[in-house]
Amino acid sequence: MADKQISLPAKLINGGIAGLIGVTCVFPIDLAKTRLQNQQNGQRMYTSMSDCLIKTIRSEGYFGMYRGAAVNLTLVTPEKAIKLAANDFFRYQLSKDGQQLTLFKEMLAGCGAGTCQVIVTTPMEMLKIQLQDAGRLAAQRKILSAQAQLSGQGSAQPSVEAPATPRPTATQLTRDLLRSRGIAGLYKGLGATLLRDVPFSIVYFPLFANLNELGRPASGEKSPFYVSFLAGCVAGSAAAVAVNPCDVVKTRLQSLQRGINEDTYSGFLDCARKILQNEGPSAFLKGAYCRALVIAPLFGIAQVVYFLGIAETLLGLPRVQP
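User: That's the sequence. What structure does it adopt?
Assistant: Structure tokens below.
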């Protein structure tokens, strides 16, 4: 097994390359997911993913769909690199006895990977959600302001339009959170992130490994790239839908700004209880298909880059058979 020890720098580079490509491709869908998950009953501005994206383009322009992308593009490299490299590391450590990994050990490796990645994922998601949801809140205020003007047209005193709230930047948000809440401000929703990412990794990595194994040639060579891509897509979408209820709760908890008449939450259980009481069980599946559409190609691309060993080629290292 010693000759198969993984090259950590190569895995980190592969994970980073995959993350950058994937985020660039699917970020608008992720924005739609965040806005759909954050809108509550009685305050619905969007009826579907396509409706959200169309309204976003109309009100904020094409690049409005990429609000918060800079945060993801900056932090997705360490985030994806940690996730993939940690899973590889734990799988290697758990297979040192020369035995084939059991399903339990594969799930254990995935659990370790999911736990490691939240170091980067939590602040990344915290900042991204504020930037993504700012457009929804601004549009809601604009609609309410227009309604107030219409209702006040018959009054003697003319209504004054409220000044537009400046939209925050990632730097401003980070500075404000650190000043007001310290480092803990960037890690709000850490528990919910763990409850989402650990089960996701427990489902994703073993499912991917077994699906990828089905496409491995009888000669023992690595699976073709299209098999790795499809295995990543299927495993990613299945895991994403499975943990979507936790993702809805996490999104609500990490949203610092609320719309008119929207609930506030004191913690994970309080948030889950209020969603169930006020919006019903179906609310936990808000944005599920968006999340599946985001995760499927994101992890499909990641696994293709990872299994092609682009970094190994760049660094002149031998490819380790997965």
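The radius of gyration is 22 Å.
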